[in-house]
Task: structure prediction
Amino acid sequence: MQDQHGTDTLVLNGRRPVDGQPVMAARDLALGFGSTTVMRDITVDFPRGSITALVGPSGSGKTTFLRSLNRMNDKVRGFWNRGTITLEGQDVHGDIDPLVLRRRVGMVFQRPNPFPMSIQDNIVSGVRAHRMARRSDFRDIAETRLAEVGLWSAVADRLGDSPFRLSGGQQQLLCLARALAVEPEVLLLDEPTSSLDPRSTEAVEELLRRLTPGLTVIIVTHNLAQAKRLSDDMIFFYEGRLVETGKTAQMFDSPERSETARYLLGEADPVSHR
Ligand SMILES: Nc1ncnc2c1ncn2[C@@H]1O[C@H](COP(=O)(O)OP(=O)(O)OP(=O)(O)O)[C@@H](O)[C@H]1O
Ligand SMILES: [Mg+2]
Result:
């Protein structure tokens, strides 16, 4: 994690990463709900400190896959999974408390979801729950995190107010600040900028680039221009399968699969013209 002064502290929350080992990985993963299999045969590594974009048509399983990485699907009715997902080599379904997993692997959803509490309490809610700081530090933590996402000047004089009077874009920045406050090792983002204006989108992208390589980012986006300018690696999903994965620039320049090529050219259904 990079601290607020930009110092690279490679020891992540007290755990020293193993050289060359991906931060997260999936092996032979299959996911589904009830009798429906939504994803199958997913094997992929997430390199440390990289930004990986998950792209693919609606319904291809991006959200289901993303949410399985920190076990957000666990409580969804009928959800099941086979295969393994690891964080720093450790099975996320093994001997790890899901709450600890979700602190280490944070998430920001497509729609902003501030908690019904003050702006400051939103930011420090995780910090408080995980006893990461003293109460007397909460205001400073809120200021640091809000400044980091570019929201400080807009909310400096209303930290005690409800977040629901903020604009949708500001609420999303608040959720991003809240996710960052617990210093995750991995951040999962599901179309996080779809409710943001271009300037806020640019600010978020700039922030994500600044936070990596200390942080590993996995972002679902329908915005191919965003995937291209932001991500190092890319995964293309189609109908519940991983069709292609590789370096983003290379996938845009010379995709290996025709489905990928068509999708990246902006065709709505990558296989309909076969
Ligand atoms: N709770 C659920 N119960 C049953 N099926 C579900 C559930 N959630 C998702 N699915 C199904 O899983 C498939 C993949 O959905 P998912 O939301 O992961 O797609 P996506 O790639 O994120 O799509 P989009 O780009 O539209 O967000 C869809 O067919 C969807 O209907
Ligand atoms: Mg989705």
Remarks:
- Residues 189 and 219 are 5 Å apart (CA to CA).
- DSSP finds ten helices and ten strands in the chain.
